[in-house]
Amino acid sequence: MRIALVSYRSKPHCGGQGVYVRHLSRELTELGHSVEVFSGQPYPELDEGVALTKVPSLDLYREPDPFRMVWPWEFRDWIDVQEFAIMCTAGFPEPRTFGKRVLRVLKERADEFDIVHDNQVLSYGVMDIEKKAGIPVLTTLHHPITFDRRVDIAAAPTLRKKLSLRRWYGFLKMQGAVVRRARWILLPSESSKVDAAKDFGADLAKMQVIPLGVDDCFVPPTEPRVPGRLVAMASADAPMKGIATLLEAFAKLRTERDVELLLVTKPTPGGRTETLIEELGIGAHVRFVNGISDEELVKVMGSAEIACVPSLYEGFSLPTAELMACETPLVVSRTGAIPEVVGPEGLCADMVTPGDVGELTNAIADLLDDPERRARMGRAGRERAQELFSWRAVAKATAEAYDRVRADYANDPTVPQKKTQKKN
Q: How far apart are CA 213 and CA 308, in angstroms?
């Protein structure tokens, strides 16, 4: 099968988008399919045999100069002008403008592909590929970003900031409309499936759950874990990841224990995380880790006595499954898909109420005091990860979904419009 996998941004080592693109494309290729990835910046790291076609944006949010000024000679066409204009009016344009660009590319190469797999672009341009390029489209929805919007707006300190965030999340109106039009939707968890139906008005009959996989490089440590070390993963310096709750809990633990915290993230300079660390006076005991390879990440995960996932919501939480594969015991939030990933209470994780500093503090302290239970939970976590989370299984199930969508498209190239109104 000739597969076009499209993703408007594919950051290689953190955040689910780039990880999903890399591992799924590799395993589909190993199964004998031909995969070409179409991505905007940041571009993904891909394995041998997987082609990459760059579909560059203006890269308005690149580090270290996000929201940058664009000089007149940088504009290539009216899509660039629209992208810059939406940013200047406080919106987030990348899904919309990437969809237009990739539609233009695929119209010229329509005979080269059997299926287009949309990795949560959810744009009008991608949905128009069926009609204008004649290629059936399947969509992956990792989780509805409506949750991120609610949490961010609730955490905004001023009315002006709240209004600005409402404008930033304006792309959700488009994404909701696209989800309701989609021919077939893949989701990583039952939680995401229910939430997509609730918030976007998506048709449950058109949705299929395929859990994500864990790469074979995530293995138990070969060196002793560092006493008192905690680790947490956060793909973004945002309220959704619950890092503020963890920092407050860590500050309480520091009053009576010799503990340290490794945060696998790149904080926003002067942002909420750095500010809170300074306010709590824990800067000497918190370290940031970012820009590392998978091998280095595995060492970090395996070096901790406990890993924490304090998120307020997760559509799957791939880092949780990766930590399980490293035999690292967990304290996690009881929210979103996290309970689906970790299994029954106490098996390989202790679960706490999201946002509850006291519960998180007590759960970490209790687990630090019980090395036998930590070892037992770690072993159970690895067994569960190996049994349930395989990228090869993801690729096989996804390829079967491609066949289903191609047959459905051949039978009827039009997609019935669902009139259910979104709720967000």
A: 20
pTM confidence score: 0.92
Residues forming beta bridges with residue 35, ordered by sequence position = 3
My answer on whether omega of the bond before 413 falls inside 30° of 0, hence cis, is no
Q: How confident is the model at residue 420 (pLDDT cuts 50, 70, 90)?
A: very low
Across the range 328-338, mean pLDDT stands at: 97
Write out the two tokens for 368.
């630090």
Q: What is the 3-state secondary structure (H, E, C) of 243-286?
A: HHHHHHHHHHHHCCCCCEEEEECCCCCCCHHHHHHHHHCCHHHE
- The structural domains of the chain, with segments of one domain joined by +, span 2-213+391-411, 229-388
Domain 2-213+391-411 in CATH 3.40.50.2000: yes
| Strand ranges, E, within 40-173 | 51-54, 115-119, 137-140
Determine the angle formed by the axes of helices 371-388 and 318-325, rounding to 10 degrees.
110
Return the DSSP state at 207.
E
SS3 157: coil
- Given a cut of 90, whether residue 124 has pLDDT beyond it is yes
pLDDT of residue 11: 81
pLDDT confidence of residue 422? 44
In this prediction, residue 13 carries a pLDDT of 59
Token reading at 150: 């609610």
Average pLDDT over residues 334-347: 96
Q: What kind of fold does domain 229-388 have according to CATH?
A: Rossmann fold (3.40.50)
Exposed / middle / buried, residue 372 (Cβ in 10 Å: 0-12, 13-18, 19+): exposed
